[in-house]
Amino acid sequence: MDATVVSEPGVEAARDAVRVGLDAGDVVSVFGRCRVAYDGRASSTLGAGDRLLLLKPDGTALVHTDEGHQPVNWQPPDCDHAATVADGELVVHSSRSTPDEELYVRFEAVEQVSRYAVTDESTLSVEGTEEDLRQRVLADPALVEAGFEPRATERDTPAGAVDIYGVDSDGRTVVVELKRRRVGPDAVGQLGRYVDALRRDSHDGASIRGILVAPSVTDRARELLAEEGLEFVAVEPTPSE
Amino acid sequence: MDATVVSEPGVEAARDAVRVGLDAGDVVSVFGRCRVAYDGRASSTLGAGDRLLLLKPDGTALVHTDEGHQPVNWQPPDCDHAATVADGELVVHSSRSTPDEELYVRFEAVEQVSRYAVTDESTLSVEGTEEDLRQRVLADPALVEAGFEPRATERDTPAGAVDIYGVDSDGRTVVVELKRRRVGPDAVGQLGRYVDALRRDSHDGASIRGILVAPSVTDRARELLAEEGLEFVAVEPTPSE
DNA sequence: GATTCTATCTCGCTG
DNA sequence: CAGCGAGGTAGAATC
């Protein structure tokens, strides 16, 4: 772990500091007044303002303002970064192909350039995901309804893979769609597509049930469920304490 | 615009530097070796590693590793940040309510604390959005088909607002759903819901057409369109040069 | 506040 | 490479 800072560098010094960091495989941050232009999947321009530019060794670029979770402009991983001086400005250019897109960040003033030798071997462990909900339902199928028997997960249908496929106590086929949080109309559409696909392949379509398992549903989603003859069961992704 | 740096500070000095920056309404960055814990909409833990923590004056917190566009952990805007020392570590805590969630970043070593007085009055201008596609189609409805006449945009239906509502040369109602890029099954479901809602309200349901306008569709989406009797017209969000 | 939908969504997985 | 779906999605518009 190592960090180096250059404060209020001249344009050439800033360019050199960025290049050293990029060559070393460090995370480089540049703080200063800049304009930004993006062209690719869409295109955008941003006038002068004070912002923080982060360049990562994996080819990611992020331009952050003083507000918001999201960068105001960015490039995804696997881009090529380059730092040059043009018209007295530090210009950072980041580009990739497939799709062709490029980002220009032009600094009229650089306050600080830092680089950090970042190493991170830890992996994030998250709980409360849809996978947790699936494990919970498989461990206790009665959460869906008494007598429910899961037979397969990720079972393929012409419309995609069903989360849980099983049978109810009357032997009817049950398709379960899992969502870790409150669901809207989109999830009902997804479940409907799976059920429709199985009904088309079946001789007795009416016997196929579709059940949406989630903490809750919106009103519109509930209406859609009723229209399509689908059902809803409330289950949290993790047991409430 | 102003930037201040403290390199390899002791724990108390790091805490004080963070507090000064937060109090001043600056963007604060902390680089060092840390562990991270989140609990709220889900929960997560992350073991020790070198990372960059950004604290924004709007209450945003971002933890970035050396890889990826997305922060490995974060808090959205409007959180309260606090820096303390516990067990010889710098602990940054960020929390909010509705929903209740909190983030702990514990630094066992701090390499650098910086703060930046960020001001940004410029607003981002983006082109090539769905709004551009709508303007394009409204300016030249023949892009959809000869004789198409838009009558309303964002027209309300029981299933939500339709992008463009109009009539064809035979006087039939046309519902247009716009997408700025290649579309999958979700967009077909959306269009289908609008068309179904209007058909239910109509005496002559069969006369209502649904047209998906986008650069292209996936195979599965094309099948769904056929099944539901919907149509597709290829249009780019911006004129090809 | 809750709901709905867009997004340069990102990310991971699968064929 | 494309397609599909999850995400602590975020963000904006609307009710």
How would you explain this protein's 3D organization?
Two copies of one chain form a homodimer. The first copy, chain A, has 241 residues and is of the alpha+beta class. Chain A folds into two domains: 3-116, Protein Yojf, Chain: A (Distorted Sandwich); 130-234, Trna Endonuclease, Chain: A, domain 1, CATH 3.40.1350. Helices cover 21% and strands 44% of the residues of chain A. Chain A is built from four helices and 14 strands. Chain A has helices at residues 11-24, 130-139, 185-201, 219-227; strands spanning 3-7, 27-39, 43-55, 61-64, 73-75, 80-86, 89-96, 101-116, 125-127, 149-157, 160-167, 173-178, 209-214, 231-234. In chain A, the strands form two sheets. In chain A, strands 1, 2, 3, 4, 5, 6, 7 and 8 form an eight-stranded antiparallel β-sheet that branches. A five-stranded mixed β-sheet of chain A has the order 10-11-12-13-14, sandwiched between helices. In chain A, a hairpin with a 2-residue loop joins strand 10 and strand 11. In chain A, helix 3 packs parallel to helix 4. The longest helix of chain A is centred in the last third of the chain and has 17 residues, at 185-201. Chain A is elongated and about 80 Å long. Strand 9 of chain A pairs antiparallel with strand 3 (43-55) of chain B, so a sheet runs across the interface. The first copy, chain A, binds a DNA duplex (15 and 15 nucleotides) through residues 38-44, 68-70, 73-76, 98-99, 101, 126, 128-131, 160-161, 179-182, 184-186, 190, 218-220.
